[in-house]
Amino acid sequence: MYMIFPFLRYVFLKYKLFAILLCVLISLLVEKFYHFEMSILRFPLYRLLEFVLGMSFIYLFNASRKCLNLILIGIVGALFYLTIGLNIPIVLHLAIEGICIFTCLACISEFLDNLILRRVIGFMSKYSYGAFLVHHVMFYQILPFFKTRHLNLFNSYLLFSMLLLIIYSLSFLLTNVTSFCLTRVTAEIQ
Questions:
Q1: Closest CA to 19 of 31, 29, 27, 9
Q2: How far apart are alpha carbons 113 and 110 in whole angstroms?
């Protein structure tokens, strides 16, 4: 995705609708013709549509227009609800579901502006890349212990909170150790 991004950004900035339609087409083609051993959910081109929809979000969302954001929440909520029962390709369903949830959270966040929340979100944002790098590994290591158990709602949230704590702790450690090592190596080179 990082290698595709410069090209995708260029096309998106010049031809927004074309870029979105092209990503829909590529995602649908990948879903139809994908026959490799690796899970399709891990194949980068399969997630292209979600990627470009994330890029387009900045052009739709305007933090200064709270009323427009409420309308946007209503639209994406309706879209989310309407797609649940439809028999559409999973790649489109995942993209619609993801963008709806993301948009709702972004819009709602405009109404929950306080110092504690800003610090929590700031921390999570700062260490999100590290969390992205380690979360699958942690899922594969920890979730098998709970596979045969039926967890009630409270225990499910408790497990989720535990996973978040472990993942972000590792991300914090990974990010700061990497930063420390890079600072040392840079100092030695100079």
A1: 9
A2: 6
**b/e per residue, 154-167, with b = 16+ CB within 10 A?**
eeeeebeeeeeeeb
- Give tens-digit pLDDT for 41-81: 778 888 787 778 777 777 666 556 666 666 666 676 677 66
Question: Which helix (DSSP H) or strand (DSSP E) does residue 113 occupy?
Answer: none
Condensed to tens digits (0 to 9), the pLDDT of residues 105-148 reads: 777 777 777 788 888 888 888 998 889 889 888 988 888 888 77
How many other CB atoms are found less than 10 A from the CB of residue 19? 21
Environment class of 67 (CB within 10 Å of its CB; exposed 0-12, middle 13-18, buried 19+)? exposed
